[in-house]
Amino acid sequence: IKISLVGIGAITNKHIEAIKYFNKDIELISICDTNEETLTSKVDEYGVEGFLDLDKLLSSSNPDFIVLCTPNGLHYTQAMQCAKSGFNVITEKPMSLNLTDAKSMIKTFSDLNLKLFVVKQVRLLKRIKLIRQAIEENHFGKIYLSNFNLFWSRPQSFYDETNWRGTLKLDGGTLYNQAIHYIDLMVWLFGEASTINCFSSTLGREIEVEDTAVINIDFKNGAKGSINATTLTYPKNLECSFTIIGERGTIKIGGPALDKIENWEFQDNFAQEDIYKDKEGFNHKNFYEGIIKDFNGVEQLKLTGEDALQTIRVIEAALESSTKGKQIFL
């Protein structure tokens, strides 16, 4: 599978790591970045073609997938540009910064019979897949309440490193940039939301977007959910935790990055032994394994643009709720 990477930033290393891991199945053939110094350095390091302009890559390279690791606000226009040139796309989250663009992307790729995947590697963690299995097999019974706490640290220097971070047009804010994986997990696990209520503010950083948000969600299945997200934690990431309280089961996964099983109790002892053996960290290897299987017709990777749509819908509704000061009914 031939891959071209667009955008050489912090997240790119995760893709490179996975591509190297699956080097028998995946080959990086070209990269693109607008920073000439960065591009030259990485061309030498990776031993591939380099392009300063996406149009030039599209006309001169022939990958099976173009991977977008660019600022959030560019994903929509660049994905559409790639599609109109006949290329399948893998985009980092978020697929877009609004629901209209997300729907347009899905329609365009469908009409052109092209693939559009969104990187949602957290869904593929073993501990998350076990939660999904527990829900599908009714080990929780009725689910009453779920909560995500994202207490991370992004100092002002983080936003000042590059001119796109913290901007409305290219970053999107804490919900689109940091909390999106965890909002996505709630939607993926509990289904469609019916009502959203959100309070968000810019409390401690000199940026255009929110650095702190509190969201309450009413799901169509009756479950209640809440998300507390901030990038203001001092002096480092404190917690990324997920709690589910059900009729016959209660779980909490905590630590700074969903990496510690704090509670796992089911009436029927579901996966009681397996869960504590799960030491897998965050990476993109599971995602690329899914790409390989999908490409070869072994197993469909259900991380398409369509699969990402509900998450964009919830974030857009949360920001609308905060701006208008009222509940949003979906």
| Shape estimate | globular
Mean pLDDT level: 97
Give the amount of beta strand, in percent.
Answer: 15-25%
Order of helices and strands: EHEHEHEHEHEHEHHHEEEEEEHHE
Task: State the secondary-structure class.
Answer: alpha/beta
Number of strands: 14
Low-confidence runs = none
Helicity range: 25-40%
End-to-end C-alpha gap = 39 Å
Textual characterization of the structure:
With 330 residues, the chain is α/β, with parallel strands linked by helices. It has eleven helices and 14 strands. It has helices spanning 12-21, 36-46, 54-60, 75-84, 99-111, 126-136, 156-160, 174-177, 180-190, 285-295, 305-324; strands at 2-6, 27-32, 49-51, 65-68, 88-91, 116-118, 143-151, 193-201, 212-219, 224-230, 239-246, 249-254, 260-266, 328-329. Strands 13-12-11-7-10-9-8-14 form an eight-stranded mixed β-sheet. The mean pLDDT is 97.
